[in-house]
Amino acid sequence: MQPILLENLCDFELQNQIKAEIKKDAQFFYTEATSGKPLFDIDDPNILESPQMVCPTVDKNEPSNEQAPLSFYLCDRIAERLDVKILNYARIKINLQFQNPIYKDKYNPPHLDSPFPNHISAVYYVEDSDGDTIIFDKGFPDDPYDLTPILRNPPKQGNALVFPSKQFHSSSLPVENSNRFIINFVLEVSENDYQKLFTKID
């Protein structure tokens, strides 16, 4: 199953406004891991866990802070580009990761955003950076072992990568750039819209 890349989700001027607002006003808190405590293959030498900074903006349809309008606007753009209707905003958050040279060719533990049906995830890249998003070949209810990457997508400002929320994926820390800003969306769409976008994970 191939993810969907939406290039230039909004115009360049608005991309820069979003970047400036996040860097100026977003209130982050520290987390010790990128995705809680996921089950992952401890024998995979490519996996390396790291802390990150997180700014929740929407939780179960409810705004969490002043960045919520920005998040809802980007959701509208995602829905428009995909030609789908968003039924529920399960979670939206901004992630900030920092440069770490030991992450060359490594990535954070593979995880899934939601096991529930008809949930899609999107990663919006706030600015250009290194630190690819890696999408793997398996998803829920499979265990995250013997995973094979099917896509490594570099952060490019204004682009959004869309994939099933039940598909295993991971982030990686920047090695050359000082930081990596993304907005992570978990959204529910109708079964028909989901099937239109994606086929079943084998």
Q: Major sheet: size, sense and barrel closure?
A: 8 strands, antiparallel
Which range does the strand content fall in? 25-35%
Number of strands: 11
Number of domains: 1
What would CATH call the class? Answer: Mainly Beta
Q: Total number of helical segments?
A: 3
Describe this structure in words.
With 202 residues, the protein is α+β, with helices and mostly antiparallel strands. It has a single domain, classed as Jelly Rolls, CATH 2.60.120.620. It is built from 3 helices and 11 strands. The protein has helices spanning 12-25, 68-82, 191-197; strands at 4-6, 29-31, 52-59, 62-63, 86-98, 119-125, 133-139, 149-153, 160-164, 167-170, 179-189. The strands form 2 sheets. Strands 1, 2, 3, 4, 5, 6, 9 and 11 form an 8-stranded antiparallel sheet that branches. Strands 8-7-10 form a 3-stranded antiparallel sheet, with no helix packed on it. Strand 3 and strand 4 (62-63) form a beta hairpin. The radius of gyration is 16 Å and the shape is globular.
What's a quick, concise take on this entry?
This protein is of the alpha+beta class.
Question: Which secondary structure elements does this structure contain, and how are they paired or packed?
Answer:
Elements: E1 4-6, H1 12-25, E2 29-31, E3 52-59, E4 62-63, H2 68-82, E5 86-98, E6 119-125, E7 133-139, E8 149-153, E9 160-164, E10 167-170, E11 179-189, H3 191-197
Antiparallel strand pairs: 1-9, 2-3, 3-4, 3-5, 5-11, 6-9, 6-11, 7-8, 7-10
